[in-house]
Design a protein that fits this description.
The chain is mainly alpha-helical. The protein has 9 helices and no strands.
Length: 148
C-alpha cells in the first residue's frame, strides 16, 4: 500500500509544489516502507509548511528513533509539545524516547502526564519495549500501576 501511495503522489509532479499534507503523505508512505531517512526529508519539508501539525512532529520523532537519533526524536516531540502540551500520545512517546536515553526522571514525568490525560495508554505499557530499561524501577511500577 505505501508503494501505491508513492506512485500516486509521483504522478502529481514535483514535490516542491506539494502542500504540507502531500509532503506528509509522502513521508508517511516512505516511513511505511522503512525508508526513514527519505521519509525525514519529506516530513521536514511538511513541517516547515505546517509547524503546528503535531502528527508531522510525531512522525519525525518516530523516524528519528528508527535511524538511531533518539536525541532528534526528543527534539521533534518537544516541538509537538510546544504546539499542544495536552497531547497524551506525544507525552507517551516522549516517555518512551527518554527511557531509551536513560533519562528516568523526565521519562516518568511524561508517562505520568500521558496517563493523566488518557489512562488508556496504561494498556500499552506492558508490551512497550522502550520501557525495558526502567521497567523494574519502583517509581515506574508505581506510575504504571495507578488506576484511573
Amino acid at each position: 500500500m505505501p508503494q501505491h501511495a508513492l506512485d500516486a503522489l509521483a504522478r502529481l509532479g514535483d514535490t516542491a509544489n506539494f502542500s504540507s499534507h502531500g509532503l506528509y503523505l509522502r513521508g508517511d508512505a516512505l516511513r511505511g516502507l522503512e525508508r526513514h531517512h527519505e521519509a525525514l526529508v519529506a516530513l521536514k519539508q511538511a513541517v516547515q509548511r505546517a509547524p503546528s501539525a503535531i502528527h508531522i512532529w510525531l512522525a519525525m520523532g518516530w523516524c528519528h528513533k528508527r535511524t538511531g537519533d533518539i536525541d532528534l526524536a526528543v527534539d521533534a516531540l518537544e516541538e509537538a509539545l510546544a504546539v499542544d502540551p495536552g497531547s497524551a500520545i506525544v507525552h507517551y512517546n516522549m516517555a518512551c524516547y527518554l527511557s531509551l536515553l536513560d533519562d528516568k526522571p523526565r521519562a516518568l514525568a511524561h508517562l505520568a502526564e500521558a496517563l493523566a490525560i488518557d489512562s488508556g495508554y496504561r494498556e500499552l505499557i506492558d508490551d512497550e519495549p522502550d520501557f525495558d530499561r526502567i521497567r523494574n524501577d519502583p517509581d515506574f511500577q508505581a506510575i504504571a500501576s495507578l488506576t484511573a
